[in-house]
């Protein structure tokens, strides 16, 4: 029976013929012109010897050059009849271009390309005679170390593809062949995603219902139909390494229906590899039969004994594999190269990057799933408080012991060391709260009150910590961040808030005092970036209060610190984002001065936009900078509109609307993106009103109000949401009043009776 792949085209040029996937014998090749898999005797200058693979799109043939050139065996990939539609042929050509563009010793090479006499395209590539990665390792009884060394080469090949802006999307054992020299070769880029538009001219069309993947190795974003990045290949590499080392797949599907696949891949946590190797499991062999794979049998092909294998995987390797397989793309290794480097770190006995998933991150995901923010964070804060109490007691006990009994100095020193160690853990716990849990709650619909309660409680704990350890700059930074978060939720300038502006400013000032104590604009980078953010928030708050000199003063502080941050780390995203935000905020303030200069304003907005676009080119996978660019574009549109360039403003705003609609479709429950879209529609409605296009203005304002009203209804305590609804309602009433007036003026007066 011919091998059938789960990929889009199903072609496996490196599949070694076995009892399970052996192609037809040479004499039984499809020779009838009516057969869709019809195979000619010759393809270009190559004589066909036999079929070595077959899939939904065509066949892979073993051929040999049959002219005066060097005679060598090659794999010929040939499209079958009936599959030569424009789009599928284009995908076939893309794969050829992909492989031609890649030059790496562990990626199969392309030698030639052309078309048969009946017009079917083909390309000729390196013929890999060998076994799939897992089969090779098992048959050779490679140790864990030997498997890891081999796997690093696979990572190197994948990284090379990523550097060429190519995502493979179907990494699995059968697409990685190991030749007789023990060298792995990466195959089958038939469903690769091309991130480099110059390589293919224009994007490939992909129907919404298409899921180009092998579910067992597909990432959560793939099975959900979300955008695919290089992080998807990192995930698949993690699954591949899991199977390579444990002999077991991380997941099992009963029905293979889409709902089950999504549930298992996106929600079920796999066993740790060191646990997986201790269990017995039914497996399907290459000939289609099933057998029970025991821990003893598994260990014999790896480390000899089950206990030894379990110990070999426990710890670093557990963490390395599971980090690559994390559900969130942002929490995986940043690249296949970093994944390979962590394996190298492990092999050399160095510290690995991978750590177990933090309890704070797990808790934040729980909050997102269950919307029970207050209850969940109460548990966290109880842990924080307990940590503070224990830390304080241990520290004081250590000091008292030294003062009371000098002879017990060693014991006291041990107590002090233990206390300092616990301080580090409590500090990490507090950091996890502020960066993970609070951010998660802020994105949750209807969470303003819950966020206030949590931040308020956390502030009490943080205040106590700083009082106990006043000279710890990291704790001061965390407390400053907590005060800034409190200011935001009280009545600040970002996100949902309770409308308490005076309380908000008080919290911002406390945050600023702590950051100045840390060094202000000249502090270490993390503290300096927080200093930028707090000054920007205070600048915006002062601008709203009509204190323009104060607003400009805070903005200049932010600009100075942001420029220092960029100079310190020019290749990091966040400092650049902060600088662009500070540039934009300064122009926002200058626009409200008595006689703003148009050229100065335009230059400022364009500088901020250019910086953000540069960052977007440099960090194309980060969604934050894409959102920043759209914000800058809308600011630029607003400036054009204020100087009566309405059509220019409208063109830019419509571009922003289109792109924000795309972002929201990708993340439909994100309240920030929903509000972004509503504000864009509100703005376009205002321009249409100025142009006297009342119907268009009304349509956009109605759509904006619908979104904003939903957000306000879901979060009654959110003052900003109420303000949004009131503002758009007033604008809509104005438009409808003008519509009514216009209709009345064009309606003929009724004739008098008689």
Characterise the protein shown here.
Helix content is 59%, strand content 8%. The protein has 27 helices and 13 strands. Among the domains are: 26-126, Phosphorylase Kinase, domain 1; 131-203 and 211-347, Transferase(Phosphotransferase), domain 1 (Orthogonal Bundle). The strands form four sheets. Strands 1-2-3-4-6-5 form a six-stranded antiparallel β-sheet, with helices on one face. Helix 11 packs antiparallel against helix 12 (336-347), helix 15 (409-442) runs antiparallel to helix 16 and helix 19 packs antiparallel against helix 20 (548-568). With 754 residues, the chain is of the alpha+beta class. It is globular, with a radius of gyration of 31 Å. It has helices at 86-101, 133-139, 144-163, 197-200, 220-223, 230-246, 258-267, 273-276, 295-300, 306-313, 316-324, 336-347, 359-370, 373-404, 409-442, 448-468, 473-491, 501-517, 525-544, 548-568, 573-590, 598-618, 623-642, 646-666, 671-690, 694-714, 719-746, and strands at 42-43, 46-54, 58-65, 73-79, 110-115, 121-126, 130-132, 166-167, 176-179, 184-186, 193-194, 281-284, 290-293.
